[in-house]
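Summary of Year 1 activities. Much of the first year was spent building the evaluation harness for sequence design. The harness presents a backbone, in tokenized form, and records the residue chosen at every position. We chose the following record to illustrate the format because it has been used consistently in internal testing since the harness was completed.
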């Protein structure tokens, strides 16, 4: 059946109503809940971190005696725990920043939708079918690509909620479609984190290798190398883990990842 001309402004108005009247409030509410959950988790991690530091200081203050070896082992284990909690805090900070960017992006979309929606009572003249304007509108609506920031933030939100399969799918799509963007390396890193969180350490190592091969200078390289070492440990491949952790210490000596690697090596009885 041949359809009559559809006013482009009415299409835009429909999109605006969908954004401002249905989808957007749900998304904003979800982000607000995620922010509250992350802040609560951050508070808990900071409390655990403070408790671990207090116990570490207490152990370090104990005088040397015949139980010194046991004390050293306890200190090493606590040091690893403190550093891992420090890394958790850094990850939560990044999650908060990502959520903030996503919230700002949604706010911009709401504003754009309001600007595109014609005032009530204003009649929009139909665009003649077959005209250049109608063709441009159809091309724009038909060839729309996902917004890279929205795609990344959605995948990150899935990761934050523990929806790892969805997160992997989103991050992989982001990397496939936007490999040259500033967050492409981050996307590969979070793919590895998703697999690590699921206990699939072989796939996690493979994902971190993809990151390190594609973006050797990435700001996620230190974290990717560290998590490779930790994944080897989870698989009980201790010698590979030691080699990997020593690499982190030598290549990123002043980083938080190097501190964690050094403490882990100490707990394994392996000199750096």
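For this record, the design step produced the sequence shown next.
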């Amino acid at each position: 059946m041949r359809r009559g001309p559809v006013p482009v402004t009415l299409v835009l108005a429909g999109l605006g109503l969908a954004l401002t009247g249905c989808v957007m409030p749900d998304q904003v509410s979800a982000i607000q809940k995620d922010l509250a959950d992350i802040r609560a988790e951050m508070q808990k991690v900071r409390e655990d971190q403070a408790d671990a530091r207090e116990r570490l200081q207490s152990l370090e203050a104990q005088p040397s005696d015949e139980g010194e070896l046991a004390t050293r082992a306890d200190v090493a284990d606590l040091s690893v725990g403190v550093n891992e909690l420090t890394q958790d805090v850094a990850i939560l900070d990044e999650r908060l920043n990502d959520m903030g960017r996503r919230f700002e992006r949604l706010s911009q979309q709401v504003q754009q939708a309001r600007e595109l929606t014609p005032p009530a009572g204003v009649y929009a003249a139909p665009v003649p079918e077959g005209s250049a304007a109608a063709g441009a509108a159809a091309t724009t609506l038909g060839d729309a690509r996902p917004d890279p920031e929205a795609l990344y933030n959605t995948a990150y939100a899935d990761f934050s909620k523990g929806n790892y399969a969805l997160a992997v799918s989103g991050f992989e799509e982001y990397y496939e479609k936007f490999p040259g963007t500033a967050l492409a390396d981050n996307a590969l890193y979070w793919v590895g984190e998703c697999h690590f969180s699921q206990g699939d350490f072989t796939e996690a190592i493979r994902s971190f290798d993809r990151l390190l091969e594609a973006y050797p200078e990435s700001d996620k390289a230190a974290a990717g190398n560290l998590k490779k070492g930790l994944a080897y440990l989870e698989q009980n491949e201790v010698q590979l883990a030691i080699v990997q952790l020593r690499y982190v210490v030598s290549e990123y000596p002043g980083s938080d990842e190097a501190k964690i690697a050094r403490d882990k090596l100490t707990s394994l009885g392996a000199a750096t």
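Residues 8-60 form the longest helix (53 residues). Quantitative recovery figures across the full test set are reported in Table 2.
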